[in-house]
Structure formats: C-alpha cells, structure tokens
Amino acid sequence: MNITFRWYGRGNDTVTLEQVKQIPGVKGIVWALHQKPVGEVWEKEEIKAEVDYIQSFGFHADVVESVNVHESIKLGNEDREIYIENYKETIRNLAEAGVKVICYNFMPIFDWTRTEMFHPLEDGSTALFYEKGKVDNLDPKELIHTVASASNLTLPGWEPEKMARISELFEAYKSVDEAQLWANLEYFLKEILPVAEECDIKMAIHPDDPPWSIFGLPRIITGEASYEKLIAISDSPSNGFTMCTGSMGANPENDMVGVARKYAYNAPFSHIRNVKIYDNGDFVETSHYTQDGSINVQGVVEELNKQNYSGYVRPDHGRHIWGEECRPGYGLYDRALGIMYLLGLWDAHEANKSGNKQ
Predict the structure, then answer these.
(1) Is 244 a catalytic residue?
(2) Is 200 in the active site?
(3) Residue 151 has pLDDT above 80, yes or no
(4) Which residue out of 173, 244, 288, 312 is catalytically annotated?
C-alpha cells in the first residue's frame, strides 16, 4: 500500500508540502496542473516544474488526479478529435516525467455534487453533506452558487469557465443517454489506451459521485456492473479504476469490501474514506474511522492486505476540524488522522499474517 496525499499546488492550497512531510508514511503527492483549462495540452516544462518541486521534498509524483476530460469528448461532438489528440500528448508528456497513473472521470458537467460544504456534525466539526431531497428539487444554478461561494480556492470539476456555460451544456446533454455516454467513453478509451499502454501508464477511472443520476444527467460508473462493462471495452493493462469507497459506497447496494475483493487487481489507485448514509438517501462525510460511518473501511483495508495490494492509496475527503480554514473536504488535520488510521489497520493485518501479534 503506497500512501499518498492529494495536493492542489503552490498558491492553490492551504496545506504545504512541508506540513505533509510531517505525516508518517506518506510516500507520494497526488497532483495536477489545476490552472490548465480542460482540454489543453500539459506541456513538458510545466509538468517538470511541478514534479521537481514535489520530489524536492522526498515525495514521488507518480499519480495525477485529474487530467479532466473535455465535455466535447463526453458529448461525442465533432471537435472531440482535437481534445483526444491533446489528451494523448498529455499522456506522453506525463510519462516522460515518470507518472504511472492518471485518474480521470466521465461525469457529465459536475464531477461531484454536495449541497452543503460545511455541514455541522455532533462533535463540533463540519463536513461535506449531500441532501437528496434538495438535489431532486434544486435548480442547478443554485447549487453552483453554493459551491462557488464556499471557497476562494478552485474546486475540481467546478471550473468557472465550465459553470458559465451551464445552460448550454444542459441543452447539449438532452440528446445523451446512458447508452450514448457509454459509447462516447468507449470511443475515447479505444483512442487513448494504446498510447497509455505504450507509455506504461494506467488510466484509472473514478466512479460517479454520487453514483446515480442527478438533474437528469446520465451517470455510468456506479457499481459492479459498470466495472464489468468497462473491462469488456478493453482488456488493456492500462484500462483500470480508481476504487473510491466513499463515492461508490454512497449507494448502500454497493458492498465495498466485495468490490475490493473482486477488483483490487484492476485498481492501481484507491481513495479510502467513509460516509454515513441516512435512510432518506442523504449522506455526510465522516472521519475515516469505520464505526463513524456506513462503509466498512476496516474490511476494505483487510481485503487489500490479503491481496498484498501495492497500488497507490490516499485518504479522501476529511472533516474540517480544530478550526482549520481550508478547501472544503481537503484540510490537513483530518486527512492526516485518516492516514494514521489506514496505516494502523494495515500494520495490524501485516502482523496477523506474520504471526507477530503483539
């Protein structure tokens, strides 16, 4: 298990790499060029500058999250070829800098959806919250305002230039159902996977967050059946998943221990986090501690340990604790606690395997 920490870059994150270096067990930084407009080529020089900076702290920069997919590719528009070629060039440039895994998603318009960024919890902390009834009856523009007003820092998937085209995009997606979105994903993968394989890079698609349709938009990476469908598109070793226990696990029908058991081999990258799911379909982010939420985090780590999982793992959304002011879900303190919990579980399972029970 290769522990990593997501970081948004110099001048774009309240957390510094000096601070991350003080968290035991962190080997790498999950990064991206967040200032780049979606669809543009990531140039070698700017990639090298970021990788060199990360490595100067003793971290590897093996995982990029995310190289976002342009909406023209998801929509299957005529100009998608331009953006696919740009994506291929970015893959090649990242490989030259030593990148091993690229996380991406294929969610229409919204990369993730929450209705409250700082929902108060019983312990005095705050966390990201999803209120199903509100989403079911909300104008998407209201949600955009909620997200945009939550932080002065960029929020992945909610880029201002894309949000400014929201009405146009919703109109375009009226002709795209799940079958068409799958077809557009298949077209994209068959174009880029040969390049990724040639570059020894694994493409790791992130599940939809949440894993069901919102605002009438199609969602396709939602559970085990979608994993099987993705595998059927291509058996390339570069065709993989990001196993996110909180995103896919927000649907209680998805048994994340079972998913880990069956698909860990296909997941070069994993986000391990917890959510508490309510009977009405609402859910809230919690600490990583198994007992605090609805996801069997302990069972997931146990299953990964049984398989001697060597993929990249990071804690995901954390609570906002001890008065920290940060990007919603991406503070320092609770994610550091999450890392220590995951490492503690892993070490305990390692000791049990070796018979060294202390």
Answers:
(1) yes
(2) no
(3) no
(4) 244
